[in-house]
Structure formats: C-alpha cells, structure tokens
Amino acid sequence: MSRLRSSRGQSNPRPIYAELRAMGDVVPAPWGGYLLLSYEICDQVLRSRKWATFDAAWRVRQGEGTRWSAPAAQMLSHTLQGLNPPVHTQQRRSLGNVFDRGTLDDLRGPVTRLTDGLLDRLAGQLRASGEADFSAIVGEELPVATMAHWLGLPAADHDLLRSLTHGQAYAQELLPSASQLAQANAAAAGLRDYFTAVIRERRKALGIDVLSQWIRIWDEIEPDRDRADETLYHLVMFIVIASLETTSTLLSNTVWLLDQHPRQLSWLRARPELAASAVEEVLRYDPPIHLTTRVATEDTVLGGFHIARDEVVHVMLAAANHDRAHIVEPDSFDITRTGGHLGFGGGIHYCIGAALARLEATVLLESLIRRFPTLRVTAPPTWEPRVAFRRLTALHVAER
Predict the structure, then answer these.
(1) Strands, E, within the chain: which ranges?
(2) Where are the domains of the chain?
(3) What's the pTM?
(4) Cβ pair 169, 142 in contact under 8 A
(5) Which helix (H) or strand (E) holds 97?
(6) CATH class belonging to 2-392
C-alpha cells in the first residue's frame, strides 16, 4: 500500500492493483480489516444494508485517542457520508433530487460561461508564456466557481473553499499521518466557521435560491432552529467539499488521459458529441476516489472470510474497475466502451454530485476540443501522495 503513495504508484497504480487482485477477491489488511478487490464483491457491499458507513456511534466504539475521535472525523460522522438509515434517508430526502434534469439544464448555461472564461484565461497564459498549468487555471477553478454560482457564494471565497476542502480530505485518507490529521482538523474548524456564517447570513434575507429553499424545508422538519441550522451546515458543507475535491481531479485527469491516448483523442475530435462517453471512461479507468470504506453491521462471511460486526472493509473502487472478470480488456483506455463502473461508488451513498461533475467535465471537454485542437501535455502530472482521494496538483500544457 505504501507503493501507492509513491510518485510511481500515483502515476500508474494499476499494476499494484493487479498484484492485489492476484491475492484474491478479499485480502486481509496488515493493519486490520480487509481489502475488497473484485467488482462483484465491491458492488455487493456498496449496495447491501449489511454494510454501513462510519457513523458517530461506530466512531465512539473505537475509543478516545484514535483517528476516529479526531475533530475532522467527528465532523464527517454528521454529514451524509457518515450517516446510516434512517437518519441518512431523512436528510437525503430533504434535499430532493439535487441535480435533476431541470437543475442541470439551468446550470448548463452558467457552467458553459464559466468554462469559456477559464479557457480564455488559459489561452492568455499560453500566449504570454507558451505554457500553462491546466490544473491551477481550469481544473481547480471550474468546480468551485460552479458551486459558488449555484449556492450564491462570493467569488472572493474561492481560494478559501479550495484550501479547506483539500485539507479536510485527509480525514478520509487511508492511514493518515498525525500531520495530515492536524491539517484535516484545522480545515474542519474552518469549514464550520464558514458555512455556519453562510447559513446565518442567508436566513436574514431568504430568497428563491436553493439554500434558502433548504432552510425553509428544515424549519418545517425541525422546530429547534439551532438543530435545523446544524443539519443544514453539515448538508451544505458536505455537498461543497464532495463536489470540489472529486470534480477537480476528474477535469484534469480527463485532459491527461486523452493526451496519453492520441488515437482516442483524434477519434473524439471528429465526434465531439461523444464527449460524455469519454468522461465515463475516465471515471472507470482512473476515478477521483480510489477507495471507500464500510463496516459490517453483523457477523458475516465475505469471500470465504468470517468478518465480525464492526470490522472494516476497504472497497477498492479503482481496482474493481479493472477486474477482468467484469470488464473486457480493463487496462485498455477505450472511450467507446459501454457498461457500468464504480467511479462514483454505489448504493445509498452514491456520489450526490455525480451528475454535476459529469456536466462540468462534458462541457469542458467539448470546449477544449473546439478551442484547443493542438493542446498537449508537456510533462507528467504531479500527484499528491494519497490512496483514497486522488488529487492532481499540476498539469502543464502547451499548444503545438
């Protein structure tokens, strides 16, 4: 697992996943728990009610002084990601179908305008210097700009939101270090301060925006306003951090993978209407999240192993997406491929912002094909040494 954090492992983790899959569908982890590596078992665990996420009660049972008692970890246990039914069901239903067809149709115009503006900035940097960091100029900016537009957050807060989101992600990392947990705790405090203030200010002048609508809904559900605002804080904060961290990686990774497969890119340039299909293959081939974790709600048997209640399993999403038992030639990047993948997880915790991420990536790819037909990557990307949440920190590009 340490090899996955190395620069070589970050640039191409697939051979390491192949080695792990060769050990079996379910592999005991040296630190306790199990790695799940086959598509079938990963999909089964994600969808089954026999497996739960790390909720507050489970974290308490792990005892004080563990990573699960850290402030950032405690914060996550109150978000959708850390809730199990029936609480998860109530909160999820209160949001409705967050990114339904109507919402996406309304957002397509703003996303297109934001994309065009960022690509103008990219073009200016390319003219001035001959090279530009796509990740910094576009990949990191489009998700936060889109989310800020949707929720009515000021553009001046983009840098802060990005920084807090990246810091908080360490709380979800596999075996985080003490320094990483410290960063996550600081980010958690910053996120609480920020979104508590956002909700307080929005209450002063409720409008027709989505956040005002959620405030009205929770005022009807929960008569205690402080408790309602606490729930709203966790809901809104989670949607923002989930959308920013994963989508920024998806956007830059799309450019990188297509650059590494020039025949696929050439084929797509002749058929730009199939950009959405290319995005799906990026999500399968190298998803933004490589693993997620579940715990057993009862004693059970999985892949021949007896797993006790409260034991942990790590669902290796990226490894499952390259399972030959489920996918034909899984290590081939093929943007004409059809079929499902676990790039956004599955079950009740399927990524809440998946539809928006797809929209942003598709709009961006269509615009790149049209405006930058000779764009190329000039150096391999730089990756942060993570295992769970992928983060591409630099991707330098130029025009031929």
Answers:
(1) 26-28, 34-36, 51-52, 132-133, 292-296, 300-302, 305-307, 312-315, 375-377, 382-383, 392-394, 396-399
(2) 2-392
(3) 0.95
(4) no
(5) none
(6) mainly alpha
CA 180/CA 378 separation, integer angstroms: 31
Q: The tokens of 305 are what?
A: 């192993």
Q: Which residue type, as a one-letter code, is found at position 327?
A: I
Query: Which residue type sits at 243?
Result: S
The candidate with the shortest Cα–Cα distance to 353, out of 246, 211, 249, 199, is 246
Under the banding of pLDDT at 50, 70 and 90, the label for residue 72 is very high
363 burial via Cβ count (<10 Å: 0-12, 13-18, 19+): buried
Q: What is the DSSP letter of 389?
A: B
Q: Which two tokens stand for residue 363?
A: 């709009």
pLDDT in tens, 185-227: 999 999 999 999 999 999 999 999 999 999 999 999 999 999 9
Residue whose C-alpha is closest to residue 137's, from 154, 155, 156, 118? 118
Q: Convert the pLDDT of each residue in 228-239 to its tens digit.
A: 999 999 999 999
Q: Using CA atoms, how far apart are residues 352 and 264, in angstroms rounded to an integer?
A: 29
- The span from the CA of 324 to the CA of 384, in Å, is 28
Peptide bond between residue 143 and the one before it cis (omega within 30 degrees of 0): no
The token duo for 188 is 């958690």
Largest CA-CA distance found in the chain, in angstroms, rounded: 62
* Contact by Cβ (8 Å): 292, 317: yes
